Amino acid sequence: MTEARPKAQVDREFSELYRSHLRDVYSYAYYRIGNHHDAEDLTEQTFLQAYRHFERAQRESEGRPLRPWLIRIAHNLAANYYRDRSRRPQTPIDDASVLSSPHDTESLVEGRERLQRIIEGVGELPDDRREALIMRFALGMGNREIARALGRSDGATKVLLHRATRQLEEIVKDGVAVS
Amino acid sequence: MTGEAADFETLLRQALSPVEPPANLYERLEATLADLTELAADELEAWELSAMGDPRNWVRPAAAVVVGTTAGTALVLLRARRRAQRRRGGADAVRELAERAARDVVAEARRALRPVPPAR
Predict the structure, then answer these.
(1) Do A119 and B15 touch (CB under 8 A)?
(2) What residues of chain B lie within 8 A of the CB of A115, using their CB?
(3) What angle do CA A26, A155, A161 make, to 5 degrees?
């Protein structure tokens, strides 16, 4: 049987976990849901759930990183969020942080439109593909981490990511052709 | 990977850049987690108090036990009431936990007030 650790130590470790991954969970929630207000709520709920099951997760992870576990909690909560409220993801439109590097006006507008089209395209993808892309590109997660978060094999995750990227590329191309 | 695919992935990385959480979210979460931690500690204390009043642990005369249990129960209830006051207006999750803690306290108190079983 595993010996129980002092509560203060568990709390300290949880505090480290949440400081290290608050941005990951928030980014995931924001791109998944599409607005800051609900992303904040989802992030808070994710950490409250995580706190309740933290010790068990630590035991079962056997030293592996807990980020996929956290993202899986957020993923489940986001699924409930849509199911309970019959909502669909909204496309984030007001986050200009990605466009802050200096460009001349014309290329800035072009670049902005292209990135905007990509973000909209992500919102048009099926749920599993959208999530895989968010984990890969917004959170910088590797194949194995994404596989753990989604509960899939490494191979299936690699295929999922590849298909998601190709489908998004097509969506963006079609959008550009139409406009 | 082709150059075109690599370019697209670069664009994708730019489009989905990480989003910094608002500063007040750090504070909000810190406060909620601190509340939870404190609540958990209070629950443990309450449990210890009621465990001391558990009939199976009683070896003293019945009169002393009744006095001790009443005092213990009063203290537990006082703490529960104080906790409820402290947490009024807090986050829903914390309120739920506080209510659950209060229910637990009542259950423990009832258990403690049950008649003492005859010694074997």
Answers:
(1) yes
(2) 11, 14-15
(3) 45
Residue A97 pLDDT class (50, 70, 90 cuts): very low
Q: Can you state the angle between helices A143-150 and A154-178, rounded to 10 degrees?
A: 100
Burial class (CB in 10 A: 0-12, 13-18, 19+), B59: exposed
User: Mean pLDDT across the stretch B97-103?
Assistant: 53
**B-chain residues near A114 (CB < 8 A):** 11
CA atoms within 13 A on the CB side of A100: 6
Q: Which range (A52-56, A123-127, B76-80, B106-110) has the least confidence?
A: B76-80
Other Cβ atoms less than 10 A from the Cβ of A100: the count is 8
Cα–Cα distance measured from residue B11 to residue B6, given in angstroms and rounded to the nearest whole number = 9
CB B61 within 8 A of CB B34: no
Q: Which residues of A touch B29 (CB under 8 A)?
A: 18, 22, 43-44, 47
How many other CB atoms sit within 10 Å of the CB of residue A115?
Answer: 21
Tokens matching residue B60? 């003293």
Q: What is the tens place of the pLDDT at every residue in A127-171?
A: 999 999 999 999 999 999 999 999 999 999 999 999 999 999 999
